[in-house]
Amino acid sequence: MWFVGKCEQAEFLWQEGHTAHASAEEAMEETTKMLGVYADFAENWMAMPVIKGVKTANERFAGAVETFCIEALMQDGKALQAGTSHFLGQNFARAFDVKFTNKAGVQDYVWATSWGVSTRLMGALVMAHSDDDGLVLPPKLAPIQVVIVPIYKNEEQLAQLNEYSQKIKKSLEAKGISVKYDNRDTHKPGWKFAEYELKGVPVRIAIGPRDMENHSVEVARRDTKEKAVYQVTDLDVKIEHLLNQIQENIYNKALSFRETATWKADSMDEFVDILDNKGGFVHAHWDGTTETELKIKELTKATIRCIPLDNKPESGNCILTGKPSTQRVVFARAY
Q1: How far, rounded to the nearest angstrom, does the alpha carbon of residue 223 sit from its chain's CA centroid?
Q2: In a domain, 86, yes or no
Q3: DSSP-H helix ranges across the chain
Q4: Interatomic CA distance for residues 268 and 132, integer angstroms
Q5: What domain range is 247 assigned to?
């Protein structure tokens, strides 16, 4: 089971950069460096595995010499372009007459780059990890990493739990962990549990009078729904380790899903069958022409997401034309 939503808005926000360089080598170095920055953020913060690759000429940003990208796979089997980094050469510099004076004292056009990600990453975060109960947020990005919910029957118990819970809250915050203590008396614990599951809070701590007596707490993970009783001794260290485990588990779950939803197709019939009945990334041979690329898109609604940077040469024949091919490329239906 998985959760998918659609976010529509009149505008979207970009994190975008543009740089100008004295040489093509410097500009290409910046282009690939930023691709690495985006891939690192996607994998190590969003817990979302991505394929680093280069776009075909047809999918390349207009005016760019090369467009590099990171491609992610959502739980419905569709691909999402999660970020791009463009090597613009001197094309835009010539168009807008952007020059600099080089070491020889001669004016020359700059070598430029452009790179960016947008708020579509928020949609990616939802679609990559969430389930039917709501969000599943990686701890590194969760605004609230731990929520503490007291369970009590009267005001006297609440007062005792407030004092007990605040000590735990402060010890966790001293570790740099974001904690919310929810002692509202307008909602019952079960309602709060469901609310924080919906919001994707990675860890929930429940504390009742008996827990205080036993110097323990009940800890629930959002990612696996598992519950366990922890002693309060060194609880801050235990929760810190647990958050790291959750971050790693969310990534590994997404990686495992991608691996099981990645296929090879050696014929057009096999290619269409995978797209229609399985979804995911399909590695297939392509003859390298824009004409064939567009025809495959017309017939199947699948596009070449990228040519992976770590692609290995492999002789074969194009799934549509039968013409020789030197490597497989990554196809998918996409957002």
Answers
A1: 16
A2: yes
A3: 24-44, 91-96, 120-129, 155-173, 189-198, 209-214, 235-260, 268-277, 290-300
A4: 35
A5: 146-257
User: Are 22 and 118 in the same domain?
Assistant: yes
- Is 195 inside any structural domain? yes
Cβ neighbours of residue 207 closer than 8 Å, sequence gap 6 or more: 148, 149, 150, 151, 161, 164, 165, 168, 217, 218
What lies within 8 Å, CB to CB, of 79 at 6+ separation is 71, 72, 73, 281, 305, 332, 333, 334, 335
pLDDT, tens only, 244-300: 999 999 999 999 999 999 999 999 999 999 999 999 999 999 999 999 999 999 999
Q: What is the pLDDT of residue 8?
A: 52
Strands 146-150 and 179-181, sheet pairing: parallel
| Closest to 205 measured CA to CA, from 237, 178, 171, 228 | 228
Instruction: For residue 82, give the amino acid letter.
Output: A
Pairing of strands 146-150, 203-207: parallel
Pick the last residue of a domain from 81, 97, 129.
129
Token pair 């235990």 is found at 238
Cross-strand partners of 68:
54, 85
Handedness of CA 263, 265, 271, 274 (dihedral sign): negative
